[in-house]
Amino acid sequence: MAGIKQIKPIKPKNIVAKQDIWLVDILDEYLTGTMNAPRKGVFYPSSLGNPCDRFLWLAYHGKLVDTPLPAITQRIFQCGSSLEDRVAKWFDGLGILRGQEVSLKTDIPPISGRIDFIINHYEFGVMPVELKSINKVNFGRLKTAKPEHEMQLQMYLNMGNYDKGTVLYECKDDQKLKSFVIDRDVIEWDSILKRCFNIQEMLVRPEKCTGASWCACKNVGEE
Q1: Is residue 6 part of a domain?
Q2: Helices (H) and strands (E) in the chain — how many of each?
């Protein structure tokens, strides 16, 4: 009737929708896998970013073990891959992309790595870009590149003979960006090389872990 407000149905409160447990379970089962241990006899920039010499010794000597790869970790890795694909399209669209997943190696000591991107920067010329994703809390705290990321890029700068590079961060929560320019530092590079040589010369692995709580060396028991 005219003048009478339409009565809206009242929605019940605290209703929990039924979840499709079957679909979630089969996806988790499909994505669950194994994280393979690093290849013996090679140093990797991502491994050298770990401050634990016990971990690095085990990794270099092929003593780390394969570990389970949970489905959620697999999804995190795949998000990183999709981020790289997106950024590659941006760089390509801008006409500044010069390379992607570019391999770099040294023989003495044996170091093997891959640069995420090579771009032609308007100010610095051809240079490497190391791409990282990070959560909102840690993104807000960033005033410079994280030490392990700076070290990784530092290795690429010296191995590839680049004067400058950048670590590019995307926030996982809102897709905001930060980018930090890193200058090549031959003194830091020399320190990295000395650490590699020291690990090669160690006949016995270090006893204690000096890394984070999640350091992979904790998965290896005593011999």
Answers
A1: no
A2: 7, 7
